[in-house]
Inverse folding.
């Protein structure tokens, strides 16, 4: 009976396997004219789609057509001087509406693109979500929009409408220092009336994995005394192959996988919960990192493709 209960609990644990999120970057929430770059974001333009990024250096803050905005300026953009703007309050220009709390960008007169750049602060797997939409109700907006990862176009569309958004939801493996550019050009060859709304949120995705500290045992009594090893299993499932996990990267509460005297990591594959699916079992080196009173221990690490993973299990510290 007890064994059945344990398996039932493990099955429930596996239902929680999936994608969780860590760091989040929100273009509108993070918007600032105080600095450029502004954290992971930078604001600028390029002569054409994908050509060299030129950061903006001038800003504007104040009243503009019925509302208040903060904007980056590109003086060569002429009539579209305030080419990347955040509406602090709703802007209602004679032909343009920009809702409060949103970002609007506008191409230049000679085919220049406005570019909002995000630079990855860390290598990871990122979900890039948002939309582009026409903000000019009179012309209406006629622009070409795109998202570039480095020099590679990962999304593009044409806007020829007012408030009919084109949305995106992309997952990219991005290395630290690589860039994601959100870019807008004049589309039909004329830049009049080309105000384009953009929403963009970038989140690092963490793959949640099910783990079993002291496989098969409950409670998970851990003798955190800086001696010996703590066995931890990462449980495989029908959609998670544990052979993708890089054992070298694993840390349980900052404690690494133990190596033998020959330097070989104590890691092997086994089916610890008898579900017919292989699990990865590692011996964590007890370096006395677990504080008294801790009841949950978390394992972090990476897959070989550098996707971050994370899993937690209860522990019961024993003296
Ligand atoms: Ca146009
Ligand atoms: Ca256990
Ligand atoms: Ca298994």
């Amino acid at each position: 009976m007890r064994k059945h209960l344990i398996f039932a609990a493990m099955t429930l644990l596996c239902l929680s396997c999936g994608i969780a999120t860590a760091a989040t970057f929100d273009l509108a929430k993070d918007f600032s004219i105080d600095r450029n770059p502004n954290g992971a974001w930078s604001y600028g333009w390029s002569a054409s789609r994908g050509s060299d990024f030129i950061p903006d250096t001038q800003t504007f803050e104040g009243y503009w057509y019925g509302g208040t905005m903060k904007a980056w300026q590109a003086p060569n953009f002429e009539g579209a001087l305030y080419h990347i703007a955040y509406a602090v309050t709703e802007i209602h220009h004679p032909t343009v509406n920009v809702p409060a709390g949103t970002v609007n960008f506008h191409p230049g007169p000679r085919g220049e693109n406005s570019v909002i750049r995000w630079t990855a602060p860390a290598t990871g797997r990122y979900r890039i979500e948002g939309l582009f939409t026409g903000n000019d109700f009179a012309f209406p907006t006629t622009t070409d929009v795109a998202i570039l990862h480095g020099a590679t176009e990962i999304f593009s569309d044409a806007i020829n409408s007012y408030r009919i958004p084109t949305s995106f939801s992309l997952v990219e493996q991005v290395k630290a220092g690589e860039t994601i550019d959100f870019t807008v050009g004049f589309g039909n060859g004329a830049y009049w009336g080309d105000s384009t709304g953009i929403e963009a949120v970038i989140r690092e995705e963490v793959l949640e994995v099910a783990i079993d500290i002291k496989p098969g045992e409950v409670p998970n009594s851990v003798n955190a005394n800086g001696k010996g090893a703590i066995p931890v299993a990462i449980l495989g499932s029908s959609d998670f192959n544990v052979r993708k996990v890089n054992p070298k990267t694993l840390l349980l509460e900052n404690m690494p996988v133990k190596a033998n005297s020959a330097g070989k990591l104590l890691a092997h594959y086994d089916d610890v919960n008898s579900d017919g699916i292989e699990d990865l079992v590692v011996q964590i080196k007890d370096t006395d990192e677990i504080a008294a009173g801790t009841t949950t221990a978390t394992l972090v690490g990476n897959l070989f493709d550098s996707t971050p993973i994370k899993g937690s299990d209860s522990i019961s510290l024993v003296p």
Q: What stands out?
A: The mean pLDDT is 92.
